Amino acid sequence: MAKTKAIVFDLDDTLYPERAYAFSGFEAVSRAFISRLGVTFDLAARMRELFDTSDRHRVFNVIVAECGIGDEVGIVREMIAMFRAHRPTIRLHADADAALSRLRPLYKLGAITDGYAVTQHAKLDALGIRQRVDAIIVTDDFGREFWKPHPRAFEEMSERLDVAHQHCVYVADNPAKDFVAPNALGWRTVLIERPDRVHSGNPIADGGVPDETVTTLETI
Questions:
Q1: How does DSSP classify residue 143?
Q2: Where are the domains of the chain?
């Protein structure tokens, strides 16, 4: 294997628990909309329940329907906007925090993350990632069409870090999209399988088989 010179991380469910971000967003939406929805039950708790069902991607639709609100489309859009733009209360996984400190003197570090730009930048700020890596790419800054598995982020990260592809490693959690581009470019790829990750059980994309699988960043 080529000598590793750079290690690049995904964000959600790699460096911090994505579930925590969702629950933080539910709290923010609940505070902003509970009076308007006219509910007397624990709104955030109901949202957390729905997150672990087949309605995970329709939480706000279900809530609004349950509340009998007439303008479902309009208020759901407002709730989604609030969720995406809120200032999250989230923390790095302990092993991620330790790994960033341990690896920084040894390698160039980076982060590549998908997701709506306003959301991902808020996460990066809340986690203090900007001060702990050498380069960050939020793929949505290029445009939705450049989200993974598009190779642009990996090509640009190699240039920003000034490290050839064969000397780069990408660590991420979702085999359905994360490893297709770096595999094709000659990166080494590492799947981290956290037990509570949102994308557990996702199928592996064609060309997306990781080179290695770990359960903690302590072994990176």
A1: -
A2: 6-17+91-219, 19-85
CATH topology for the 6-17+91-219 domain: Rossmann fold (3.40.50)
Beta strands 135-138 and 168-172: pairing type?
Answer: unpaired
> Which runs of E-coded beta strand occur in the chain?
6-9, 108-113, 135-138, 168-172, 188-192, 212-214
Q: What are phi and psi of 47, to 5 degrees?
A: -65, -40
Residues constituting the chain: 220
Mean pLDDT of the chain: 95
Tell me, what's the pLDDT at 200? Answer: 81
Using a cut of 0.85, tell me whether the model's pTM lies above it. yes
pLDDT value of residue 92: 98
pLDDT score for 202: 86
End-to-end CA distance of the chain: 15
Contact assessment for residue 62 and residue 98, using Cβ atoms and an 8 Å cutoff: no
Nearest alpha carbon to residue 30 among 82, 85, 90, 88? 82
